[in-house]
Write a structure and sequence with these properties.
By secondary structure, this protein is mainly alpha-helical. Helices cover 71% and strands 0% of the residues. The longest helix is centred in the N-terminal third of the chain and has 45 residues. The mean pLDDT is 84.
Length: 91
């Protein structure tokens, strides 16, 4: 095979490897961010001294007061690990 083509193929392989590393790092950072946000939410809720049984009603009342329906906050279907891994393979 042509030396230039071999060199380009090696660069392609290295680049794909780096992309996979960056994607893994991005997933880790997004997970850390979510965990930190969840911790902040839990601390805020616990600081309100509202009984756990009353919490859904309080949250619903706040959402309705602001004119927005009470939803989970998720905008689309929940992703699955299988679907995520299929996306990675297509990259």
């Amino acid at each position: 095979m042509n030396v230039k083509i071999e060199r380009v193929n090696k660069d392609i392989d290295k680049t794909k490897e780096k992309i996979n590393e960056f994607q893994a790092r991005l997933r880790d950072l997004e997970k850390q961010k979510t965990e930190l946000e969840n911790t902040e939410i839990v601390e805020a809720v616990r600081g309100m001294d509202i009984p756990l049984n009353d919490l859904p009603a309080v949250l619903k009342a706040l959402r309705e007061q602001n004119g927005a329906p009470f939803t989970s906050g998720q905008l689309g279907p929940k992703s699955t690990k299988k679907a995520d891994s299929e996306k990675e393979e297509n990259v």
